[in-house]
Amino acid sequence: ALSERFESAWKSLRGQNKISAANVQEALREVRRALLEADANLQVVKDFVAEVSEKAQGAEVVSGVSPDQQFIKIVYDELVSVMGETNVPLKQVVPGPTVVLMAGLQGTGKTTATAKLALHLRKQERTALLVATDVYRPAAIDQLITLGKQIDVPVFDLGTDANPVEIALQGLEQARADGVDTVIIDTAGRLQIDQAMMGELAQIKDAVQPHEVLLVVDAMTGQEAANLTQTFHEQIGITGAILTKMDGDSRGGAALSVRQISGQPIKFIGVGEKVEALQPFYPERMASRILGMGDVLTLVEKAQEEVDLADAEKLQEKILSAKFDFNDFLKQTRLMKNMGSLAGIMKLIPGMGNKLSSDQLQQGEQQLKRCEAMISSMTLQERQNPELLSGSPSRRRRIARGAGYGEKDVGKLVSDFQRMRTMMQQMGQGNMGMPGMGGGF
Ligand code: GDP
Ligand code: MG
Hints:
By secondary structure, the chain is α/β, with parallel strands linked by helices.
């Protein structure tokens, strides 16, 4: 697996205390080799590695995260970013019909994907009409009709003598008449890109003005996916892609090329011959697939956790150095929320995890919410100088009104906060307890 390749690269980083130009070189070379092995396109890989190199060398050193963890997170994040961050669903225009044009070489899985897509839409209560324009191979029309029957979705065809543009136009008419939600136009492909095929596709596109042009790419094509995407995007203009045959042993290097080159997202992946075998494309899943391992995700998560923890440690330093104010308190509660639950962060603090019951934790989270509401109603000055509040009932009244709590609640928050701060300072180095947990406001 690629993990083994990376393993050796990480070694050059492990044990170093910082990512530097010198020690990152070997790791970068390994990333490059690994991506090429995953069948990504050379130019795409070059651009990718250059980007990672820049980010890695500019990366801020995070305490508690080893350089190899930090590096792999940079690679992973960049992979996700190149592939588009999130899933982009199929467009839906209102009023319909939404028109989808399928494009791609022969044998990539266009006809199969046409049926898969219709089934996918039906699961979302959307209706579809499939249009068969591949008139060059009689079997192609039959194939679509058979698939349509299987999933109980109508297929429009005019036999093999009709003109593909005419079929597409009449199919669209039919869909309008029937009030169908989405028209999916299956097209002919050639074994190689040729002008006749491109010309016909362009004509169909001009005629029906599709909302989506989906390039169907066989994941096994590897490197070729880059040229293919470029040609189709230049000559036809695509809005997205479907990456098929991801159930094979392809590592998905093609996934990197498609968006990098066209700027358009992969929307679905095909994972088998059956009509059900279509899944939305998720960049994060593909990134870990390209890196080739489950443990990468764990590593990345661990690195992330430790980045959060480093923030938490900074705050604790502040607590101990007596500069802790309501702003810090707010930051801290938000940090806790980011990290999930209070229970989660308690576990990260040595010796705290087991001391609190789940009831206490729940109470703690509720108290945090109340505190957050009250602090949000304070002015900046008040947040920085909690003392302002102890001497001013009118300030406390104003905050109470703003937060929707009683004046007494605000008074208690202030006195508890001050008591806690004094306590924290007295505790000094030894116990790094979190404020407000045990005693409560
Ligand atoms: P077209 O020429 O582009 O219309 O391609 P077809 O839809 O006819 O598919 C060509 C072959 O690929 C057929 O045997 C399909 O069953 C197969 N196929 C299509 N999509 C997938 C997929 O996601 N996984 C696998 N394993 N086979 C697929
Ligand atoms: Mg076909």
